[in-house]
Amino acid sequence: MPLIFKHAGMEYNDKQIQIMETAEILFAEKGFNGTSVRDIADKANVNLAMISYYFGSKEKLLEALFSYRGEYIKLKLESMIGNKELSSMDKMNTLIDHYIDKIMSQQCFSRIMVREQVVNHTGTTAELIFEMKKRNQELITKLIHEGQKKGEFRKNIDVPLMMATLVGTANNMVTTQHYYRNINHLLSITDEEFQKHIRKKLSQHLKKIFKVILTNEE
Amino acid sequence: MPLIFKHAGMEYNDKQIQIMETAEILFAEKGFNGTSVRDIADKANVNLAMISYYFGSKEKLLEALFSYRGEYIKLKLESMIGNKELSSMDKMNTLIDHYIDKIMSQQCFSRIMVREQVVNHTGTTAELIFEMKKRNQELITKLIHEGQKKGEFRKNIDVPLMMATLVGTANNMVTTQHYYRNINHLLSITDEEFQKHIRKKLSQHLKKIFKVILTNEE
Amino acid sequence: MPLIFKHAGMEYNDKQIQIMETAEILFAEKGFNGTSVRDIADKANVNLAMISYYFGSKEKLLEALFSYRGEYIKLKLESMIGNKELSSMDKMNTLIDHYIDKIMSQQCFSRIMVREQVVNHTGTTAELIFEMKKRNQELITKLIHEGQKKGEFRKNIDVPLMMATLVGTANNMVTTQHYYRNINHLLSITDEEFQKHIRKKLSQHLKKIFKVILTNEE
Amino acid sequence: MPLIFKHAGMEYNDKQIQIMETAEILFAEKGFNGTSVRDIADKANVNLAMISYYFGSKEKLLEALFSYRGEYIKLKLESMIGNKELSSMDKMNTLIDHYIDKIMSQQCFSRIMVREQVVNHTGTTAELIFEMKKRNQELITKLIHEGQKKGEFRKNIDVPLMMATLVGTANNMVTTQHYYRNINHLLSITDEEFQKHIRKKLSQHLKKIFKVILTNEE
DNA sequence: AATGAATGAGAATTCATTCAT
DNA sequence: TATGAATGAATTCTCATTCAT
Known about the structure:
Largest sheet of chain A: none
Number of helices of chain A: 11
Oligomer: homotetramer
Helix content of chain A: over 70%
Distance between the termini of chain A: 61 Å
CATH topology of the domain at 65-215 in chain A: Tetracycline Repressor, domain 2
């Protein structure tokens, strides 16, 4: 059984990646429970039994997907924290763009995360999400403390609430973009242009909000 | 057949409400596909066949739940729009509190909505959500136009983006509140107090944000 | 329970007849097992429970239908047997027309009989069919003996085989009439005309056949 | 998925044949709707899920059975049509025997066909029956035209009516054979002998009838 | 290392019937 | 006498997983 070796710094072969990326699309589209392993096998053009063979179970496939997709933000964050040449607000703005970039470029995964977060908070997946969240929040808190120390940011910043706005707004846009496109008469532009448009709008919008949250005294 | 009379102004009997409210809890906890009708029947202490008997199918039960829970905001909104004694900003602040109130007091239903919005945008449920969203957005747009005409609000307000922040932030808080409670050392207070705390925090936070979005020229 | 009085010379009230005639149409269309009592109740515009109330069970409803429809041929046959003014061949031809008339005018019931005959030969319905068949066969055998005694008919007539041709041909025409209409380019005439056409054709056809069977010495 | 390869010239593996032949017996005995897939699985000694696995659904199992059993007559007919050494009447007599042989040797399937023909004329099964019927009728019509051209057969032969007698008589005998055996005092002979007896009787009977239909002028 | 065949468990739904009123 | 509400049993079908090869 090749299942054992998948831990910590796990690496996946082509077949496994192919399966995970297909599963990602289907999970995003129909939900975890709404997707059968047969659906995944068919769409990924692999043998049905291969999914159990490589991942052990459907549940573990989801966990693998989380470990495969979840490493992204951390790296970006860590590399930035120590940088002395940037102001704390610059860093925060960069961070906002990183979050937007992650959510927008991994829309399928974002949808899955949103769904999984909503349901009951037990199981390995929930733990993975929790860990990810916690780690990110710690780094951001560090960044904010830094800004507070430098006098750039005001005191009494409720980090989780602030993050709820960042993540909540971006995720909400991802899940309601078809509606946004309708309302704002953006049906004629290409999808690529539309994605760019949303990113820009989100970026301006959230930066403006964050500026108020982080600096406005009153 | 008791199925027929469920249209427009639909009224539900005690058994039906009992089933819907049980389903709501379970759907929120385990997702629609993760909940079996047997789960619902068991928890609601009704016969398994009664669910099909009263609602026709699991899908239609969800739809019934939407029609049962979805009428709330509209009424609140409509009654406020015409009020001449309030400033537009007052109305908007009232609206924010209404949204928070709805999302916080119907947390299970909010979770279900979030999940359903994430998956594929077809089917009766999706249509119901779409209609609800559209109706609300139209009323809010009206309110904003009113404020713009009076000079209270600035031009160029992106309503869907603004709503994404309102709804996205509140929903994100609902789904991550256990985490919030941990981080902010609020484990000792009662749940009731905690809920009150969140509401207050959310209210302040979103009102502050909205003030900037709606008035700040820059 | 009003079930008791339904035996022997049973009489049915309007509601019961309404139910039986609706059931007859549906049984013919979708088969006994393919028709639910709910289907019947809906189509007959009666309360669902009324069917059990009046007939005891779905099975007994079918039996009632058989007793309601099955009395027809016997009477016709009996009244003819003793008639001394007709030749045996005349009687046989009249009999053929009676059978055709019965099968053609009660097509739904004929279909049901065909279906029920095909399945396993146990149960009250099977017994009813068997009784009916036996009685008819006895009368016909009497008629044939009469003809043989008079020298009109030849010896060695296999009555069941002969009846198989009479009943089998007519039933086959009933169940494949849509096909017959296609093949013979009779799509433009009215249904009434078409039914008349089939009856006439069947009558000529079977009389010709019977003449050979009954008289040709070979 | 083993479902895909079942098209046109379809071949079935042992398990599939085992299932189909068991289903055939049960469908003949209790009707399609009267037989549950569980019945079939139990009697065929296969896993319940295997039936869906191999055939997709109960309905498709019936269709498979039709495709498995329905190819028989066509081949016999086609190989005979062109034969120049036989008279048209010889061919017709051979045809009669072929039909009798098919119906008598595949009694279960014949019963199923009779039942399915009786109910509503929609769905794949109905289409399969229709196609089969049409094809056979066309070949027989060809044969009759040949006989008419040669002066062997009279004009104005109603083919569907003639076929109704052939098929209707044989099917009626199949479904009422237990009754026939009773009446004609054939209870002491073995089943094998009885079957042979019926075939012979049917053959003589139908050939005699066909001779009249096809040649007798008046 | 990879897979076709198979399966036990459980899914949603329908059904004929019952029963209190 | 008639019926709305209710239900236990059975239905077909799908599912994730296993296992021999």
